[in-house]
Every structure is written in structure tokens, then in C-alpha cells.
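Protocol check, entry for the methods section draft. Step 1: assemble the input record (protein sequence plus ligand SMILES). Step 2: submit for complex structure prediction. Step 3: store the C-alpha cells unaltered in the notebook. Ligand used here: S-adenosylmethionine. Step 1 record:
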Amino acid sequence: MSALASFLHHLAASCADDGFVRLSLSSPTRHDDAVQRIQARLVDLDGGLHLSFTLKEERRDTTQNVPLPDAVAWVERKLGREFRGALLATTTADWQLQLPDGKDARLIRHKPATTETPPRSHDGKKPTFLGASALPWLQGLGIVDQQGRPRKNLADKRVQIDRYVEILAHLARDCGFDAKSEAPLRVVDVGCGKGHLTFAAWHLCKHVLHRTPHVVGIEVRDELVANASELAAQLAPGELTFVHGDIGTVPLGAVDALVALHACNTATDHAIRRGIEAGARLIVVAPCCHQEVRPQLGRPAPLDAVLRHGLFAERMAEWATDGLRTLVLEHMGYRTKAIEFVGGEHTGKNLMLAAVRGSEPTPAQRATTRAAIDGFRAFFGIGTHALDELLAAPGPNAAGA
Ligand SMILES: C[S@@+](CC[C@H](N)C(=O)[O-])C[C@H]1O[C@@H](n2cnc3c(N)ncnc32)[C@H](O)[C@@H]1O
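Step 3, stored output:
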């Protein structure tokens, strides 16, 4: 393969696997008023990936956005004729192309200057965390079309998935999951539904954290398990599987991270309990359908004056349920965060609780968190809180259970 063909091959491959960092064309063949240099970024425009070229003249810059399939041919037309040098930076290597007049072309490989990909956002558009390497599974799940644009009515889902991967990436780094390791990264997604976020977790492990994924989605509905399994077998054999099972009882080995997004009512508590028992360093839940606390919620003074309004009582019950979940997690040695998952315009169920396991609490710390839980429950008259109760009894993973 010629040096030029090899350079173009690396350009196309880096765009396809999301390793592209930047491209510049230099050493112009003309030295008049024409373009002296071209720089390119990979950007997501209208749901599709483009190379955005900045053409630098002496007194002005102009921009041309070329969709991906045509962008490589666009670069090929410039090289040799208008420019004799090019540098392609990717996350795995930097490629320097030299096309001297009358001499042999050379392609030199350098260590990558950076292994981080820049954001693919463009001019105020919402940044998107998922690059071209996510297209096969986003298309396979029917979320985007062949051009990478969100399908009708699925734009919110696309935003949700993107934001989920972004948040999870930060949390995963907090947990050290991005450290180089031969060990697979074990993630379980319970109540995974169609597997949208399970595929996203697999993508994160493989393409963002560069770890070997061992991701399992657990779901009670057989037809969802069958559909997701078929796609996983095509795109991520041996790395992503879907299993029929109940959150509360399905056998789980040791896991690094457990996620449960929109598992109804106390299914979220079962999920948290399973994560704690499985030794998860990271637990991420987005609770929904809070039904347990509402009928129990008292009206302690001075809140009684407002809790007579049903809507306030409902919101307070949700807040109390999730607040107690964070206290119980802290009692078990986790640091917790409450995060707004996506803006309220995308989904009403937008609270996410993230818990990162810290060191084993001392007896004094346990006593303090226990007192906080008991005081909170007593204040609101909460006789039963599933998570607190579940953790007091041996679970399905416990020895002999
Ligand atoms: C609202 S959907 C959320 C799906 C997915 N986590 C998401 O956020 O896109 C909840 C899913 O949990 C499943 N589910 C509910 N209770 C479950 C249980 N006890 N065990 C396993 N799956 C359960 C439901 O069948 C449903 O597919």
C-alpha cells in the first residue's frame, strides 16, 4: 500500500472507531493568497459525523463540513496537489505524511500526543459522548437511522443514553476503572429492558475505558432478553450477554459495578442490596414509581401545614425514599451523590443516585449513620423502608442462602 493510501486508511479507521483527535494539512504547493493550511475536527452535526475543515488563508478562515463517507476522498484530493504534508493525530498513534516533490512519499508513525478524544460537539450543540463506534448498536437497537440521526420520537432516548455514558464515565474514573488492567470490567444492569443502557455500559467499558467488558443485562421479560441477546451475539460476542431473571433472586457473581435504571418501586432497593452483596465498587440507580413510603408518610410539624396538599406529600415521599436510600448506602460504607440525570424536558424520572464504595465504616461511624436513619424514619413515621429491611436479612448471595 502506498504511503498516501495507508495514511487515508488510518484516517478512515480513526473516524470509524472514534480514535480521531485532529488532522492538519500543511506545506502548500502554492504560496500566493491561497489556503496555507487546513485543520480538521470530527464533529457530530445533525446526528451525523462530519469532518469540519478550517481553511486558513492569510487574512481569513473559512469552514467546510463534509460528511464522513466523503471526507476521506476530500482529503485525498488535496494531498499531493495542494499540500505536501499532513499530520493525523489519533488516540493510538500520530501519523506524519510527507509528499516531497519528485521524491518518495513517507509515512512516519509517532507515539500519540494524546490518548483523549476531543468533544465531538459543534457550535453550541449539545456535546455527544458517543462517537462513530457506537453507531452499530444504536442502529441495531433502532435508536438512530443509517445516517446516525435519531429516529422519530427517539431523540430524547438518544440524549439520555449520551448523558448516561457521560455520567458513568466520570463515576468509573472516580472508581479507578480506567486504570490499565487485564481483568475484565464486570458490570451488571438489572431490569435492563430493551438493553439500551446495557449496550451503552458495554460501549463505555470497551471504547472509553479501554477495558475488556463483561457486561450482563438482567430482565424478567423473555422477549426483551431474546431480542437484546441476538444483537449482543452479533456485536459483542463473549462481552455482553442478556439473562432472564428477577432482580431480587438472580444469581450474581462478584461485580465491579451494578446499575438499575428506572426499576419500579422497591425493585430499586433489591438492586442496591444485590450490588452491595456482590461487592460492587459502584452502584448507580435511577429510581422510579415510588409507592412504598407515600401511604406511610406522616405530617410532622412544621411540615404538616403544606403536606396536606397531595402533590407536596407525594414529592416529599419520593424525596424521603431516595434520601433514606442514600443514608442506608452511607451506613454500608458508600459515598453517595444525587445527580440530575437529564433535563426535565427529556424525562420526568431524572434523579440518579450514585454510590462509590469507600473504606469499611468504623463502629462509631456506623452508629452515627444508624442514628441518622432511625431519626429520619421516626420523624416521617416510616415504619417500613425496603432497603433498610433487606439489608438486615441475609440475601440470595449470602453463604448458605
Ligand atoms: C422502566 S423499564 C427500564 C428499562 C431500562 N433500565 C432503561 O432504563 O431503559 C424497567 C424494566 O425492568 C424490568 N423489571 C421490573 N421488575 C423486574 C425484576 N424484579 N427483575 C428483573 N427485571 C425487572 C421490566 O420488565 C422493565 O423492562
